[in-house]
Write a structure and sequence with these properties.
Strand content: 25-35%
Number of strands: 7
Structural class: alpha/beta
Number of domains: 2
CATH architecture of the largest domain: Roll
Radius of gyration: 21 Å
Length: about 160
Amino acid sequence: MDKVLLTTEGHKTLVARLADFKGRGRTEVADELEEARSHGDLRENADYDAAKEKQGMLEANIRMIEDQLARAEVIDVSRVPTHVVGFGLIVKFENLDTERVMEYQIVGESEADLTAKKISVTAPIVKPLLGKSIGDIVEVELGGEVQELEVLAIRRP
């Protein structure tokens, strides 16, 4: 069974999401099922079918989060050294071919959110950067082309 890497923040978020799904989520679905049952014949009741489907999706999400938490390896980012690119750190790098500068926190797959500038440790652009220092240049295949990235800065969030 593979470990699920999480930052402390990511772990707290998953625990809170699980509690919300088990509490508010289950209550809402139960209310929807009760309302749909009150409409009569369940064989031709679209509201009941929709509520049952929602219940199934909710329970699947609960099982998925419970599995992730059971396999979680929580990394305390305050203890991760900043002399090389590593999990939980924020790395700033420049694509030397496009001159585009990017900055992302490297997180686990379940925490990845590009809009929040969080990228998965398993992303193809991240793997070659791991273990590199400021000033190092790596080659990465992006969109079928090999491009060079230079590490500009490494810091904790």
